[in-house]
Structures are given as C-alpha cells and as structure tokens.
Amino acid sequence: MALNDVELCDEHAVHIKLVNKINHEMPEDDDLYDLAELFKVFGDSTRIKILFALFESEMCVCDIAETLGMTQSAISHQLKILKQSKLVSNRREGKSIIYFLADDHVRTIIDQGMNHIKE
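The structure assignment produced for this chain is given below.
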C-alpha cells in the first residue's frame, strides 16, 4: 500500500490525554511479544486443521495423521509447536499418546477468528 493510500488527518493535533491513557494501559513489551508469537502459531493451516480436529475429539497422532492425510512425522512436528505454545496437551494411554486442547481459550480464539473472516 502506498503512503498516498492512507488517509491522514488534515492537521497535526495530538490529543495528549488520550495518548497518555493508552500509553498507561499498554501491556509490557514482553507480553506483546509473547502475544505476537502466539498468533504466529495460528499462522499455519496445518496447525489450524489439527486444532479443528481436536475440537471434535481427543486423538492420537495416528488418527490425526489419517484424518488430515499427512505423515505422523509431519503431524508430530506440528503438535510439538502447539504443545510448546500451550495450545494442546497430551497424556499416555497404554502405547498411545492422546492429544487434546489445552483449555477452552483455544476454541474461543479459533471461533472468534472464524467469526471475523465470515463477516
């Protein structure tokens, strides 16, 4: 987008009370960085597909791979990223590792994103 495509104020007038209020309420840089990193995790369609699959049911890697038509290795790599980001958790059941959504916040984030793109 060229600079000319952005609408600008006709005059330079800073609303200092507003600026101070926003600066006071702005989260810490580290928190904003962590939030940006979290949203990067959602930037991969395979990870989104995995999360959608886990909305429906807890699943092992084999079942997720079969559902998405991918290799277990590829799914395992993506699950590692999702687990590091605290979006999924797992537990052992016999010889299987069962994956599930870490909490309801994950579903809320995805639901809000879907609502936004469908507007």
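Interim note for the steering committee: The beta strands are 59-60, 88-93, 96-101. The longest strand covers residues 88-93.
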